[in-house]
TrEMBL record:
<dbReference type="InterPro" id="IPR033010">
    <property type="entry name" value="Cdc20/Fizzy"/>
</dbReference>
<keyword id="KW-0853">WD repeat</keyword>
<dbReference type="GO" id="GO:1990757">
    <property type="term" value="F:ubiquitin ligase activator activity"/>
</dbReference>
<dbReference type="GO" id="GO:0031145">
    <property type="term" value="P:anaphase-promoting complex-dependent catabolic process"/>
</dbReference>
<keyword id="KW-0677">Repeat</keyword>
<dbReference type="InterPro" id="IPR001680">
    <property type="entry name" value="WD40_rpt"/>
</dbReference>
<dbReference type="GO" id="GO:0005680">
    <property type="term" value="C:anaphase-promoting complex"/>
</dbReference>
<protein>
    <submittedName>
        <fullName>(African queen) hypothetical protein</fullName>
    </submittedName>
</protein>
<dbReference type="GO" id="GO:0010997">
    <property type="term" value="F:anaphase-promoting complex binding"/>
</dbReference>
<dbReference type="InterPro" id="IPR036322">
    <property type="entry name" value="WD40_repeat_dom_sf"/>
</dbReference>
<dbReference type="InterPro" id="IPR015943">
    <property type="entry name" value="WD40/YVTN_repeat-like_dom_sf"/>
</dbReference>
<dbReference type="Pfam" id="PF00400">
    <property type="entry name" value="WD40"/>
</dbReference>
<feature type="repeat" description="WD">
    <location>
        <begin position="387"/>
        <end position="421"/>
    </location>
</feature>
<dbReference type="GO" id="GO:1905786">
    <property type="term" value="P:positive regulation of anaphase-promoting complex-dependent catabolic process"/>
</dbReference>
Amino acid sequence: MDRTTFGRKTLNTQRSRMDRFVASRTSFNESRRRRSWHATTNPEIVDTWFGKYIKQKKYTSYLDEAFELEQEVRVPYKEAWLRPWPCVPRKKNYLSSADSILDLPTYSYATFPELLDWSNDNILVAALGRNYHKWSWRSQSLISQGYTQNEIQCCKFDPRGELLVLGTDNKMVELHNNALSKKIATHRCPCIDTIEHPCSVTAVAWSPTGNSFATGCSFGVLVSLSREAKLITWRRVVREAIQIVRVSPDARYVAVSSVNSSFVLLLSWPTLEIISRLDSDWTIRTIAWHPWRSALLGVGAVTSDLQARIALWDAPTSKVRETTLSPKRHSLDAMLFSHRTGELVLSLWNSDRALLHPKTCSHLVVLSDPKTVVDQWGEGRSGLDRVRTMVFSPDGTKLATATSDEDLIIWNFLPEDKIKKNTNCKSFSAIPVYLDQATQGFSLR
């Protein structure tokens, strides 16, 4: 059967068996609906994101308020009033339905997952092989496509939505005009290698100002480039392939993590001077900066016994707070802070249920702090395969996830705004932009 990128998949309950997304609850009979995989698990070990436990907690709080009872403090005093990260948690569940289900052919063969991005002009891009495809959220259709000379390993829109940078094989970084979908500049990675084994550019990240961007290659070389793809500086920071590169919201730090590594490096931006290093006994899977703080880094990892853990690293003070998410065997694959609410979104994958049919192994969890789940999807439900990467829409109301089953699922993360936004309001990223203007363009952050 012919498949097209961003091809729409049906949302009807009477779809063919080859459509792998979850069917609606009403399509099952009553006896089957009452059965649940977590009914046979150990009652003493439960996942904190089960819906019934969230409801019980809310009902307990309601009774305490009705009878004017003081709530029991279960955590130390300092942890009770000090939030690990700034957040405005939601008061009701929104992550319950998918807005759209699209197709991503051959995505399951990709070595590096960051082949999906969402620009500020509501254009979704998916890079597959040597081609990238653009899908408009407004028109709900495929609008254009472009191509590169080599196979694409990663892609990222600039904050202004004017440029698209693509990391490819054969040491090449290509800079494309977003409106024309054409190449306007290239840069070769300056790493020292042999002709028989050229490197691949495996990670890219833009500075929040849009004046520069970072790239990482399969030989562990980190490069800082200007907006015109001109070299600023470069340094070999690790020996393995760089998997993730992230520039801080204040454009003063860049965090780097390599494949299957147990540490995260923190360097200055854009000079790439090593500042600090976070070592652990875990395997680092993903990192993400909090958008409301100048340099608060979230680190997602997995222990040797397959337990998901997150750590919060304050870059200026080097203070670290860590926590275990669940007593069960869950691998953390993707992590992202919402720029709208400050909530932390996690993609968890249970390896014990990965071979079951139908699949009930993936969870999407929304946290307001490490111990509080405010929303979730995947409680005993089947059909959602391992989520490899996810991105937010520009307004923060939609969440796009790419799975190993080659599905692009766009979730309703928050209700859409009915009030027109004030376009004159300055965001937090305007601070480094102002500093660049004050120095008359000397800074390239």
